[in-house]
Design goal:
The protein folds into two domains: about 90 residues, Elongation Factor Tu (Ef-tu), domain 3 (Beta Barrel), CATH 2.40.30.10; about 130 residues, Rossmann fold, CATH 3.40.50.80. The protein is globular, with a radius of gyration of 18 Å. By secondary structure, the protein is α/β, with parallel strands linked by helices. The strands form three sheets. It has a seven-stranded mixed β-sheet, with helices on both faces. A six-stranded antiparallel β-sheet has the order 4-3-6-1-2-5. The structure holds flavin-adenine dinucleotide (FAD) and FE2/S2 (inorganic) cluster (FES). FE2/S2 (inorganic) cluster binds next to loops.
C-alpha cells in the first residue's frame, strides 16, 4: 500500500481522505464519465499504472476507482461507470465540486517486468480505463519495450471509451490497435465479435510477451484461456480484479479472495496466482 503525501512531505493517514475538486467532466460512453481532479492542497497525487483511489461522494459513500490518466503528467483522472448510488453521485459532479480522495492503493501493472518484452494489452469495455496509464507509460518510454499491441472489445460502437484517443493510437506506427464490438449497425466498418476472436488471429511470441488484461471477470477468464492456448505462461499474464472494498488497506476483509486481499496484494495479479482462487465457487 502506498500512502498519500501532504505538501509538507509527511505521509497522510490512509483512512483520511484528501480533498480534491473537479476541474472537468467529460461524457465518455452512454453510462461512463471521466473526471479530471485537482488536489485542493496543490500537492499532486503520484501513482503507478494500475493503482486505484478510494473516491468519496460526500453524503453518499466511497468506492474504489482506478486512475485512468497519464501518471507522468496532468491532472488526476478517473473514469467511472454510473451503476449504483456512489458511482452515480460521482459522475454527476460538475466543475468546482468536491471529492474525497484516499490513495493511491494497490499493486499495479508489471511495468518493470515488461521492459524488453512485447506487451499485449487486452481490454473489455471500461477495462480500458485502468490500462490507459500503462499505455501512456509504454508510449512515453517506447524504446524500453518490444512490440506493443492493444486488443479492445466493447459491446457497441457507442460504448468505445476514449474514442478519439483510440483512433489516434491506431494511426501510430509504434502500437498495434485492434477494436471489436459485440454488436454493430451497418455503418460500423470494424471487427464484430468478442475480443478473444482478436487473440486467436494475433501472432504472439510466448517466450517474450507479457499480457495485461482488464475487463469483466468472465471476459478475463476467456482471455486467459485463449492466451494459454497461444502458449503464454500463466505467470506472464496479469489481470486486474474488482471486489467490494471498504478500507483498501487490508484491514476489513471485504475484498478477501481466499488468503488474498485484492486491495493490498492486487488488484493486479498473475493468472497463475488467481486461477486456483477463481476456480473456488464461493470466493
Ligand atoms: C480496484 C478496483 C478498481 C475499480 N475501478 C473502477 C473504475 O475505474 N471505474 C468504475 O466505474 N468502477 C471501478 N470499480 C468499481 C467500483 O469500485 C464500484 O464497485 C462501482 O462503481 C459500483 O459502486 P456503487 O456504490 O455505485 O454501486 P453499488 O451499490 O455497489 O452497486 C449497484 C448495482 O450495480 C451493480 N454493479 C456494481 N458494479 C458494477 C459494474 N462494474 N458493472 C455493472 N454493474 C455493477 C451491482 O451488482 C448492483 O446491482 C473498481 C473496483 C475496484 C475494486
Ligand atoms: S478493502 Fe478492506 S481488506 Fe481490502
Amino acid at each position: 500500500m502506498s500512502e498519500a503525501a501532504d505538501p509538507s512531505g509527511r505521509a497522510a493517514p490512509p483512512m483520511v481522505p484528501r480533498i480534491a475538486h473537479v476541474r472537468r467532466r467529460r461524457h465518455d460512453a452512454p453510462d461512463a464519465w471521466t473526471l479530471e481532479l485537482e488536489m485542493s492542497d496543490g500537492a499532486p497525487l503520484r501513482y503507478a499504472p494500475g493503482q486505484f483511489n478510494m473516491l468519496t461522494a460526500f453524503g453518499v459513500g466511497e468506492v474504489a476507482i482506478s486512475m485512468s490518466g497519464d501518471p507522468a503528467s496532468g491532472p488526476l483522472v478517473h473514469t467511472i461507470r454510473a451503476v449504483g448510488p456512489v458511482s452515480h453521485a460521482l459522475t454527476r459532479l460538475g466543475a468546482g465540486q468536491l471529492v474525497g480522495v484516499r490513495g493511491p492503493f494497490g499493486v499495479g501493472w508489471p511495468m518493470a517486468q515488461a521492459a524488453g518484452k512485447d506487451v499485449l494489452l487486452v481490454a473489455g469495455g471500461l477495462g480500458l480505463a485502468p490500462l490507459r496509464p500503462a499505455i501512456y507509460r509504454l508510449l512515453g518510454e517506447r524504446a524500453r519495450f518490444g512490440k506493443v499491441t492493444l486488443l479492445f472489445g466493447a459491446r457497441r460502437p457507442e460504448d468505445i471509451i476514449f474514442r478519439h484517443e483510440v483512433e489516434s493510437w491506431r494511426g501510430r506506427f509504434d502500437i498495434d490497435v485492434e477494436v471489436t464490438v459485440d454488436h454493430a449497425g451497418a455503418d460500423w466498418r470494424g471487427h464484430v465479435g468478442v475480443v478473444t476472436g482478436l487473440i486467436s488471429r494475433h501472432e504472439i511470441d510466448p517466450a517474450a510477451t507479457v499480457a495485461m488484461v482488464c475487463g469483466p471477470e468472465v471476459m478475463m477468464r476467456f482471455v486467459a484461456m485463449a492466451l494459454v492456448d497461444k502458449g503464454l505462461a500463466e505467470d506472464a499474464m496479469y489481470l486486474s480484479m474488482e471486489r467490494n472494498m471498504k478500507c483498501a488497506i487490508g484491514h476489513c476483509g471485504h475484498c478477501q479472495l481466499g488468503p488474498t486481499f485484492i486491495c493490498r496484494d492486487g488488484p493486479v495479479f498473475t493468472f497463475a496466482r488467481l486461477k486456483p482462487l477463481l476456480s473456488v465457487k464461493e470466493l
